[in-house]
Specification:
With 477 residues, this protein is α+β, with helices and mostly antiparallel strands. The chain has helices at residues 43-49, 99-105, 130-144, 156-162, 194-209, 213-225, 233-244, 249-261, 269-280, 285-297, 302-314, 318-330, 338-349, 354-366, 374-385, 390-402, 410-421, 426-438, 447-457, 461-472; strands at residues 2-9, 14-16, 26-28, 31-32, 39-42, 53-58, 61-62, 78-80, 87-92. Among the domains are: 1-93; 97-260, no CATH class. This is HCP-like protein.
Length: 477
């Protein structure tokens, strides 16, 4: 790691932005440079933390960009790391910015975004993350502002909408949820430029400091997911709790989800249900779905799970539509009905729900509720497989290997098996073992034993059987 600290350039010379006791250092990742052979710090990492950087200094020595053998500056820009030394990041001196003037500089304001703001904010960045320094400035601005009720443009409504679409847990997995990922570019997300990310983080943190419940919930999401700040579930819980105290339904659902997953708190389904119910009392769709997953996975009460899923499904929530389809397919808590399962899967697939796309392929493959159709099955498997669905990838491999719905192709079968196996799919690991043992599209190889071992460790009996056979044959293939 390379330690750096903020310096500000005034009209005459370079001076420290604050006293040594007040200034805090941050640390950036160091990378080995394949060109120069040195440890380096990427310029993009520096500019992501500080705006308007002029140069980097080590004492009075200016750290220049590294050059190649032709004396041209290497791309991407980089400087040599200096172990054990705190480098000074020199930026232009800027006037202190009022809350109102910062508002005009943020995306979505009436100010022309193509023109540089007339003033900006200079910050001291804390050691945990650049965003923490921005939060400190936001607090100071709020305390010194004559009108503390002033709120900047908020992403709250957009966040409220986005937070209602978590990924779907598998039908036979323990009742834990992945945290909902916003569909839009959220503060701190990789899709944003560093400048826009910093502005959106600042906007969210300032509004949260001013007590805006939507911003508090959005800031909780950032801490939960590690977007723009270091991941910190306790900090997320703190923000969610403040927002939930203002009856923010998203925050109530998110608190339930932390208890549901045991993130930053002891796993507690009773408290998860309590908070989900609070959000449901306000009509929160995702909370209905999440409550259904607890009834399904923990309490094994499939009838109550189906009732929860049905409410959320009727409100257009794709994960609930898919889960309800799965219950109808298995006849769990509801009458078994493949046609109804297909209907719900199709509704979810219209929203590009990956699990639903795989399930439709499976129904076509097996001929449940529809005439068996390998072409349709393969089409749906590929839709899900190309999005990274491991079971669909393994299924596509089987279809290629047997020439079902597509021309027979051992090479493509091998490719799909490898994609699924590297994600930990046990059946794909077994298929790879068979592929290498019998030389299907590849030269026979002792890799067969490696893949059988991986599958056997995941409890696949056929893989255990093949391992015994190979051991009896003296590990030969």
């Amino acid at each position: 790691m390379q330690a750096i600290r903020l310096f500000i350039k005034d009209d005459s010379d370079i001076k420290s932005a604050s006293s040594p006791t007040a200034s805090e250092d941050i640390h950036l990742a160091v990378h080995p440079d394949p060109v120069s052979g040195k440890d380096i710090v990427l310029w993009d990492d520096i500019t992501a933390a500080f705006d308007d950087v002029i140069q980097i200094r080590s004492g009075t020595f200016v750290q220049s960009f590294l050059k190649g053998a032709d004396f041209k500056i290497l791309d991407p820009l980089r400087i040599a790391a200096v172990p054990g030394v705190i480098l000074d990041v020199v930026v232009r001196n800027k006037a202190e910015l009022s809350l109102e003037s910062l508002k005009k500089s943020l995306p979505g304001s009436e100010a022309d975004e193509n023109k540089p703001p007339t003033s900006d904010i200079s910050i001291t960045v804390s050691g945990r993350s650049p965003a923490y320094g921005i939060e400190n400035v936001a607090m100071a601005a709020a305390m010194n502002n004559d009108n503390p009720t002033l709120k900047l443009l908020s992403r709250g409504q957009e966040t409220e909408k986005d937070n209602k679409s978590p990924p779907t847990p598998g039908n036979n997995t323990p009742p834990t949820l992945q945290d909902a990922a916003p569909k839009t570019q959220a503060p701190g997300s990789p899709q944003e430029t560093a400048a826009n990310a910093a502005k959106n983080i600042a906007r969210t943190m300032m509004n949260a400091t001013l007590g805006d419940n939507k911003a508090l919930n959005a800031l909780g999401d950032m801490y939960r997911d590690g977007r723009g700040v270091c991941q910190d579930y306790r900090a997320a819980m703190d923000r969610y709790t403040k927002a939930a105290g203002q009856e923010n339904a998203d925050a109530q659902c998110n608190i339930g989800q932390l208890y549901h997953n045991g993130h930053g708190v002891n796993l507690d389904y009773t408290l998860a249900v309590h908070w989900y119910q609070k959000a449901i009392n306000q009509g929160h769709t995702r909370a209905k779905y999440n409550l259904g997953t607890i009834y399904q996975g923990y309490y094994r009460d499939y009838a109550k799970a189906a009732a929860c899923f049905l409410e959320a499904a009727n409100e257009g929530f794709a994960p609930a539509q898919c889960s309800l389809g799965s219950l109808h397919q298995r006849g769990s808590g509801v009458p078994q009905d493949y046609s109804l399962a297909m209907e719900w899967y199709r509704k979810a697939s219209e929203q590009e729900h990956t699990e639903a796309q795989y399930n439709i392929g499976h129904l076509y493959h097996q001929g449940y509720s529809v005439a068996q159709d390998h072409f349709q099955a393969m089409d749906w498997y590929l839709k899900a497989a190309e999005k990274g669905h491991a079971v669909a990838q393994a299924s596509a491999g089987v279809m290629y290997q047997h020439g079902q719905g597509v021309p027979q192709d051992d090479s493509l079968a091998l490719d799909w098996f490898q994609r699924a196996a590297t994600q930990g799919n046990a059946n794909a690991q077994l298929y790879l073992g068979l592929t290498y043992e019998y030389g299907l599209g590849v030269i026979q190889d002792k890799k067969a034993k490696e893949w059988y071992k991986k599958a056997a460790d995941r409890g696949v009996d056929d893989a255990k059987g093949r391992l015994k056979v190979l051991e009896q044959q003296g590990n030969s293939v």
